[in-house]
Amino acid sequence: MEGGASVAIFWLLAALTVGAAVAVVMLPNIVHSALYLVLTFIGVAGIYILLEAEFLAAVQVLIYAGGVAVLLIFGVMLTRRGHIRQSNPFNSYHVAAGVVSLALFILVVLALGRSPWHAFPGPWPEDTVGAVAEAFLGPYVLPFEVAAVLLLVGIVGAILLAREEKGEK
Amino acid sequence: MANRIERKSRLGEDLLIFWGRCSKILYQYVVVAVFLLGAIGVAVAALAANWLVRPKRPVAGAKGETYECGLETQGPTWVRFKVSYFLYALIFLLFDVETVFLYPWAVKFQVMGWFAFAEMIVFIGILVLGLWYAWKEGALEWK
Hints:
The complex is a heterodimer of chains A (169) and B (143).
Chain A: H1 2-26, H2 30-50, H3 54-78, H4 94-114, H5 128-137, H6 141-162
Chain B: H1 2-53, E1 67-68, E2 71-72, H2 86-136
Antiparallel strand pairs in B: 1-2
């Protein structure tokens, strides 16, 4: 029963993710596409939770469903376009998109079939977040602080790029 | 040939392990699922109750019009926004990423001791510098 339930949840999440992804490419309104993309990200986060990668799931929700979605919505808001109902002009290329997607799918399946599968040695780590914390604050403390500097550079760069000139108002 | 069969059986074993792990994890997320179902249920129940109780008259006259603050809208509603608003999105994103770094630290905070605390103070201090700069440049003012 338990195995059955987890299989059912996996298929539910997979259907949600793929269905939302199809909606992203098929819908004519790009704002709807962006919102369905958020649903896709959340579906992927659910699959991460099924894989017991909770930290990855949290990061997926924070960065992709939070940050990247906000960037996308702002990107749509800031660009000049024609009518909103025809704002996703690339979803009329059904044949070309189908051929490219099919080719990519075959490539991925071939790569999966050829790669050697090794079982994970030993038990899986129980506490993934704790291990990440110990790595950050122990041996990898310098890259950790450098990441802060990188974020600082990002903030300063963003302000320099996007702010108005001082006298301009 | 033998190699290929072995590879396939290994893949099967991995899948079995995967499903086993999944079912174990499921018990921890039953609460989450109950909350999720409750949230969806409340929304659906509210809509269904409205649909049941409301009078089913066809929309007539100006009732179906879009209006803004009691007035009819003028011009297109989908307009291009000023680029400077992108700043808020970027600053949000950067502090969003900071949260990702804070999260493992917050989980392990009580066992890691003062060294980790000092490290995180340095980390946050560097980012507060950025916040101070944003403040100084007036980037936080909504214009």
